[in-house]
Amino acid sequence: MKSKKVLVIGSHGLLGSTLVKLLKEKGYMVFTSDISDEGGIDITKPDSVEKQFSKVKPDFVVNCAAYTNVEACEDPEQYKIAYAVNADGPRNLAVASINHNTNLIHISTDYVFGENSERGYEESHIPYSPLNKYGETKAEGETNIIKEMEGIVESDFISQNTLSYIVRTSALFGEGATNFIAKILQYAKEKEFLEVVTDEVVSPTYVKDLSEGIIYLIENEPKGGIYHYSGEGSCTRNEFAKEILKLAGIDTPVKPTTLDKFNRKAKIPNVSILKNTKFPEIRRWEEMLEDFLIQK
């Protein structure tokens, strides 16, 4: 059986770089494209997308590209850029995927929801309810893919020709980017104590695990639709910080605070939990965190 050709867009980012590494280790024919590369794909431009698809002729395209600066999205000029990348880009990729008989995996976010559901959100949950502009752009990106796939029933696309997947995830961590873990470890060495919020509940997700989930879709080609992949269980940001420091052997105290103490432009969900009903069993976030910190 021939090895599948996989084009990873946004290959220099937190998720993309890890995914590329694992795909190569598993023997896939991997092609990478990032807007920062010379001749790299610009997903906001249909001609650029068409050129890349025609050149590579991939079996799967994985879209890890996104404008993820949640605070900056609140600025009208930055919102235009975010909308082009997060909303128009997925539509352009979906159209090209259909035209070239290519399967598409698009990475989305828990921020498309904002109802603070303590039960969590299943893949079929409707409607979208973003609290900030970033979430709005990502919800619109999902909507554009769903339209190209002729709609959705529960969490499966009506059209399965070609296969498309929207994979929502949350609170990503890993090597290669400044994220929550890096900041906690840095501040713990510089300050007498840390103040971390107790009113933001998340399900932390290791990019290595998410990459394995993406590879599961590539290998098994289940029914196209919406999938959720995040660490099993949940915690407050305060609890997450304490676990990080415990595993790192750092005894800097972590004190409670709340979101309203920070002067943020973007409103953040208090509770943001994605429930997985379609992927095989996913590790608990504590296991993911321990695995990541052991590797450091």
Explain what this protein looks like in three dimensions.
- The protein has 296 residues and is an alpha/beta fold.
- The chain has a domain at 5-174 and 205-231: Rossmann fold (3-Layer(aba) Sandwich).
- Helix content is 38%, strand content 17%.
- The protein contains 8 helices and 14 strands.
- The protein has helices at 14-25, 46-56, 76-99, 133-148, 180-190, 207-220, 237-248, 285-295, and strands at residues 5-9, 29-33, 60-63, 103-109, 152-153, 156-157, 164-169, 172-173, 194-197, 201-202, 205-206, 225-228, 235-236, 254-257.
- The strands form 5 sheets. The protein has a 6-stranded parallel beta sheet, with helices on both faces. Strands 5-6 form a two-stranded antiparallel ribbon.
- A hairpin with a 2-residue loop joins β5 and β6.
- α1 crosses α6 (207-220).
- The longest helix has 24 residues, at 76-99.
- The chain is globular.
- The mean pLDDT is 95.
In brief, what are we looking at here?
The protein has 296 residues and is an alpha/beta fold. Helix content is 38%, strand content 17%.
Detail the topology: elements first, then pairings:
Blueprint: E1 5-9, H1 14-25, E2 29-33, H2 46-56, E3 60-63, H3 76-99, E4 103-109, H4 133-148, E5 152-153, E6 156-157, E7 164-169, E8 172-173, H5 180-190, E9 194-197, E10 201-202, E11 205-206, H6 207-220, E12 225-228, E13 235-236, H7 237-248, E14 254-257, H8 285-295
Parallel strand pairs: 1-2, 1-3, 3-4, 4-7, 7-12, 8-11, 9-14
Antiparallel strand pairs: 5-6, 10-13
Helix pairs in contact: 1-6, 2-3, 3-4, 5-7, 7-8
